[in-house]
Specification:
The structure holds 2 protein chains of 2 kinds. In chain A, strand 8 and strand 9 form a beta hairpin. The radius of gyration of chain A is 17 Å and the shape is globular. Chain A contains 1 helix and 9 strands; from the N terminus they run H-E-E-E-E-E-E-E-E-E. By secondary structure, chain B is of the alpha+beta class. Chain B has a single domain, classed as 2-Layer Sandwich (Alpha-D-Glucose-1,6-Bisphosphate, Chain A, domain 4), CATH 3.30.530. Classes of the chains: A mainly beta, B alpha+beta.
């Protein structure tokens, strides 16, 4: 009975019972995410935003060191949550911290996103390259900016 | 974290402020230097004070206005601490100030009466030191908050705008 229960628990965890589901990428790959990590894990939570400015969770993308390409719908407001997690077995503690931003991708534009976590310092920067015109840095904007 | 907080309170008590937590940044400036476990760091950066203030204004709220939940476990114990941080930036042409306050929401009992947004943890002052240089002073705990100090220094000298991982402090 006990091994079976453990197997069921393992299967449930593998199926994503932790709450995170894999983001169903619609294609387009307009986000080019360059990730640099040391002693941390990172994921990107993708949310749509409803008319009342509430985030609607769509899924999570694991960010490994290197380049990850993700597509989010152009012209629609999305809420991106970058989450960094660290844990220390010896210190017996774990923690996670997030950096969020609203983003409404312009049709045809690509977004170069740099995600870094080094020496306990983290940063997310976004640079937009439109189909025509010069690239520009996009400031991060929290959910409050949706209501403005 | 609890140990560091205890030491910090002890430091302020040793400085003669037992029962009287600094209620303003100015009181903190006056009470903290010279206290046990409190460090005052002075350094100069080759940037105008206006630029230093602009970086503080741009980064401090985004990086430091956070609520952090940390869990720690040891054999026989499990602790959850929830802490809110609040940054205030006052920046102009002739000076820049960054105040960081810390308020425990769960897991730690406040011994003394605190300001509404929590006890003053850091006060950073930047003043001109010539046309394109700025003198910076950081007053804060001498241990446990290294990541915050590194971020402040990087913001001041312009080498990085990265945020400190506030789950790593204490």
């Amino acid at each position: 009975m006990r091994p079976r229960a453990l197997l069921l628990l393992g299967a449930a965890l593998a199926a994503g019972c932790g709450g995170a589901v894999r983001y169903a990428d619609p294609g387009g790959e307009n986000l080019v995410i360059r990730t640099e990590l040391s002693d941390a894990r990172a994921v990107l939570g993708v949310h749509a935003v409803d008319a009342q400015c509430r985030p609607v969770y769509e899924g999570t993308v694991g960010l490994e060191p290197g380049v990850t390409q993700v597509g989010i719908p152009p012209g629609r407001l999305s809420y991106l949550v970058f989450e960094f997690s660290t844990s220390s077995f010896w210190a017996g503690r774990s923690g996670s911290i997030t950096q969020e931003t609203l983003l409404r991708p312009r049709p045809g534009a690509t977004y170069d996103i740099r995600v870094t976590y080094k020496n306990d310092l983290y940063e997310v920067t976004i640079r937009e390259t439109p189909p025509r015109g010069r690239p520009r840095d996009i400031p991060l904007a929290g959910l409050r900016a949706c209501q403005r | 974290m609890r140990t560091a907080i205890g030491l910090f309170i002890a430091a302020l008590a040793a400085a003669g402020c037992a029962g009287k937590m600094p209620q303003t940044a100015d009181e903190f400036r006056q009470m903290a230097p010279g206290a046990f476990m409190v460090q005052v760091q002075d350094f100069e950066v080759k940037r105008a004070v206006r630029d230093v203030g602009e970086t503080f204004r741009r980064r401090a709220p985004e990086c430091l206005n956070v609520t952090i939940r940390t869990t720690s476990s040891a054999p026989g114990s499990y602790q959850v601490i929830e802490t809110a941080y609040k940054a205030t930036v006052i920046a102009g042409a002739s000076k820049a100030e960054l105040h960081l306050q810390q308020k425990h929401l769960k897991g730690v009992i406040a011994v003394y009466e605190e300001p509404v947004d929590g006890r003053y943890l850091f006060v950073v002052d930047a003043v001109p030191a010539g046309a394109r240089a700025t003198k910076v002073q950081i007053i804060g705990p001498s241990r446990g908050y290294d990541v915050v100090v590194r971020a402040f220094k990087a913001w001041a000298d312009g080498s990085s705008t990265a945020c400190p991982d506030m789950t790593k402090i204490g």
